[in-house]
Amino acid sequence: MINLSYRFNQDSCSLELKGIPDVSNGDSHDTIGILSSWSLKIIGASVLEGEKEHLDNLMQVILQYSRSYISGIRKTYISNKKIVTISPFGIFHKLLLNSTRKEVEPLEIILDDSELSDLTRCFDLLRFDPRFNISWNIIEELPFKKKQNLLRLSGLRSNSNFLYSLVFFLSICFVLLFVPISNEFEYNDTTRTSQSLS
Amino acid sequence: MNETPLDSLKNEQVNDDSNYKYNNDENALLNCVIAKDTPRKIDFLILVIETLQINATDSLLLKAKDIGLSDDYSSRVQLWKMRCTNPLRNTYTNASLSYEQVNSFVELISAMAENLYPLIRQLLSSKESKTLNQERWTIFSKRLKSLIRERMNIQRSYISSLLNEENNNFFRELLVILSLSCGEGGRKRLKSSLFTQI
User: Fold this and answer.
1) Rounded CA separation A94/A102 (Å)
2) Integer Cα distance of B62 and B60 in angstroms
3) Which of A76, A177, B108, B154 has its CA 20 to 30 A from that of B59?
4) Where in chain B are the domains?
5) Does residue A45 sit in helix, strand or coil?
6) Helix (H) or strand (E) holding A58
7) CATH topology classification for A4-142
8) Which of A121, A148, A153, A160 to mutate to test the interface with B (most CBs of B within 10 A)?
9) Which of A44, A92, A142 is the closest to B28 by Cβ?
């Protein structure tokens, strides 16, 4: 059986996958249908390895995070069984990887924007590569609902002027409520100047 | 603005390749409309491309021709007319972008971001020399601000706040969007960020 190995390189990370064609599924000789191992090297971090399920979880979390990040939403994503977690960490992103082995400590990797986009590009290249006949457990990119879009930081900032002016207006109105009104003013009705004709 | 993608899909399509892409994305964009801030976002993304590349308009038109986009990209004037849907522009037209126009902008921005990825990555990286990075950011923000001053309505409070902003958060957000828009996966991500679910 031919062992195949394909590598996806980006500036700060390199993803290598090894496997064999799934002949029963009609794969050609250069297509990986059964994944035997994978390794991900990120500059400045330990080499990540695991089974297909782990790669699936990692891809799912990173791609979901990137999907929301492109819309300006920064929130935490946790994979099934809490194997992979990614969350905002200041201007960076914290990737937390829990091993399925009990004796192995969780691994924490801090990514900057360029490393996150490198990693996302690696996974994008993999999922659209015709040399792989593997179904990845990835949630399709969908537009968000209006409510979710309200979470956007930039959106909130653009409406802040309106919000400030509204608060200012209401506070002025509140202060004006306490201003005493003079009741001693005598009202002279100028319209009542008609005289009788007689 | 409230036209759903499927309504406009009935219109004339560009070529066979894009037909395939449209059909793939068709299901993902069911019950979705173009987001309110899409014209603004698209115009600013092109402005960033213009900042990163000299004579970017010519490159945009050439790229549009290469990837087989419609007649909207036949001349600079046509492109300018579409960009004038951004309400923050000096020369704002009260028109809205159609589904096909948004789709073609997504194709174009994604293709240009792919070409400019090394430059975008350099600006987003935190691992490079701090002084060098600062210098790059100074040049980038200065050029982008001059383009904003030239094209946008500086009377608008949003534009004046952008011009006075010191930390360049919004410019960084735009670069992140471009970095996550590269390739097939990036194109899908960008597209879904420009629509809203009803």
Assistant:
1) 22
2) 5
3) B154
4) 20-197
5) coil
6) helix A52-70
7) Transcriptional Co-activator pc4; Chain A (2.30.31)
8) A121
9) A142
Residue burial A35-68, b: 16+ Cβ < 10 Å; e: rest? beebebbbeebeebebebebbbbbbbbbbbbbbb
| Environment class of B53 (CB within 10 Å of its CB; exposed 0-12, middle 13-18, buried 19+) | middle
Pick from B63, B72, B70, B75: nearest CA to B110: B63
Q: pLDDT per residue over A101-145, tens digit each?
A: 888 889 999 999 999 999 999 999 999 999 999 999 888 888 888
Quick one: closest CA in B to A68, which residue? B193
| A72 inside 8 A of chain B by CB | yes
Q: Do B37 and A155 touch (CB under 8 A)?
A: yes
Pair of tokens at residue A150: 């309200």
User: pLDDT digits over A29-62, tens only?
Assistant: 899 999 999 999 999 888 999 899 999 999 999 9
Nearest C-alpha neighbor of B82 from the set B67, B69, B95, B64: B95
Q: CA-to-CA distance for A108 and B95, rounded, in angstroms?
A: 49
Q: What is the pLDDT of residue B105?
A: 95
How do the domains of chain A map onto residue ranges? 4-142, 153-179
